[in-house]
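Narrative progress, year one. The postdoctoral researcher (J.K.) led the effort to move from monomer predictions toward full complexes, under supervision of the PI. The following entry was the first complex the group processed end to end, covering 753 residues in total.
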Amino acid sequence: MSNEQFRTCPESGLQFHKPAENLMKAHAVVAVVILLLGGIAALLVTLTRWPAVHLLPADRFYQLLTGHGVNMLIFWMISFEIAILYFCSSTLLRCRLATPKLAWVGFGLMFIGIVVNNYAVAGGNASVMMTSYVPMPADPNFYLGLILFVVGALIGCFIFLATLVVAKDEKTYEGSIPLVTFGALTACIIAVFTIASGAIVLVPTWLWSLGYINNIDAAMYRVVWWALGHSSQQINVAAHVAVWYAIAAIVFGARPLSEKVSRMAFFLYIAFLQLASAHHLLVDPGLSAEWKIFNTSYAMYLAVLASMVHGLTVPGSIEVAQRAKGLTNGLFQWLRKAPWGNPVFSGMFISLIGFGFLGGISGVVMGTEQINIIIHNTIYVPGHFHATVVIGSTLAFMSLTYFLIPTLFRKQVAFPGVAKLQPYFFGLGMSVFALAMMGAGTLGVERRHWDMAFTNAPLAFDYPASAYTMMGIMGVGGMIAIIGGAMYILVTVVSVFFGKPVESESTYGTATTQLKRAEPIVVPEGGHEAAGKWGLAAPGTFVLAMFFLVTFVLYYAVNWKYLASVWPMS
Amino acid sequence: MSAIQPPAARAWWKQPLDKVEGTWITIALVWSLIMFFMMPFWHIYGKQNLSSEAYKTTPQAFMAKTQAMVDQYTIRTETDAKLPVVKPPPGSDVYLLGRLWQWWPLLELEKGQTYRLHIGSMDWNHGFSLQPVNINTQIVPGYEMVLTITPDTSGEQTIICNEFCGIGHHNMLGKIYVTEGGS
């Protein structure tokens, strides 16, 4: 075996380890293929829920909705995240990846799991939605596929952790691990918790579906399942926040305002984020108010606090970097002069704004114990999580892809004009889509429902015309987002498989270099505050943050007022 | 490119906070605590709190209780399927069961009166979504949830199933009629 396994990317200065590179490519390619499958399902599902179109028959709708959910929320996300974990360990730390062969076993298990699960859903006997609440039965292969996938992902997590150990042991970096790797470590720790919960709930369910176990308590299933279902979305949050920091560093050379604050915020995620599986159980029978309040609020909204901190420090660090380059006019010159034509940046920034304003606020509001009564299982819920998982995580991963195409795949980005517009189509279309769903949900429209007109039901009910309008707007926003998704697939597939190689040389050798500490901060004359205003290093970001807070407070208050209008109950 | 490099300072944790961060953390923490205490506050002063009263049950036991209520208090039937409309006395225990794919029976309640509404499932998970008033709860098989409710608007309310329960899910409706009372 050749030892010439390391190359340095001349543009980015990143050092790649060949086996890690191949694994990252494999995971990323599988992820994008899954995104394509899930995207086709998304198109058909949206066209069915758009009342004026109502495309699919009911059985096909529920089947595709199941496939859309599992493929997007579990397979696409976690596949891409394993690539991110390898990138943040092996590549960022300039270290060999620990046990690449075992990593390929993990990849193989994940791949087989995806195939087995999709095969079960395609067979038509597993239209049980991603949640597969017992005792509604699914084809045993539905659970088996998920089990194989999560075991494979768990192997990936341990390889990430082992690579951190190797890097430390072989002294491939100075000082502490970079903030972005710390963020990836956060995602990995949450992933281990999530996957363990998944195994605890799915293995017995699989055995139950095979007839080896008689009964699974339906309420207990929900408690444990959501430790998989919700926590897996918390992996996404930690991962996409790490990606935000990485892109701020790559595009602007931004450094965290303070390492301590950003790392503490990640630590709050580790400590509290997983409690949020309670969000799904707020109107379940039998759980006490104390249990709900403590868990749904991540103890005392400490993980929300962490997200609000990241929401300030990421753009704040960009602002400080831009101001240090002389873009100091007014509050927002640093933002106006940002590279809006570079999809790596524009995607990341739309992701940040969308995640905060749409996903974050709606999530906290509907996760409030009592307010959940007016929102649970309405289409507001998918409205919320399309803002967090799609605008937040997926768009962040898409923007990272535009960086990885030249650095990891060594290909030029094909159709640069398309790539430039892609984040706008996807992010803005998805924003309209998510907002319209939240509007329809507020009017009581249900999620996971084939026919809001109840055409064949023995009893009748009419939603107000405004609900139909909202669902129509959702359809239009969804189509714009689908176009944005197709643009992403087009650019990535053509670039990776048919694209022109980048011009610079990056050959493999044995030499490795140690990752040095960041350069000491070059403080502008008079300090960072002098480049800012009011004694603040990032005044523009602070104004944005205050605008966010006012929006948050108002929307929160409006929902309490709405709740107060429904029937008294206790 | 510092966020993807080790921190510049060896003792990075000693770097003082920037004012913008310190201020924002304080504001965000205060807001977080307000939101936290809003929930217990509403338990004390608010009127819309979901009960945590629930019992383990079986489909047979729950069916028996519901049937007894239907036998005693049915006032009329509706639709070709002769769905019973039940008018239980104010203050009483009212039973509603969800099954593939109906809410049974239909209920008639009086405005301003308080009822103990027991909801259970005969088979799979169902979602109790009362529209247009917009009250939503999860109905889990094996458990009987008890909501103490006081309808304060009259008219027709529809119970829609909002937890996916198979191919007939979108046809699963029920009714709660609220009359002006005093009669």
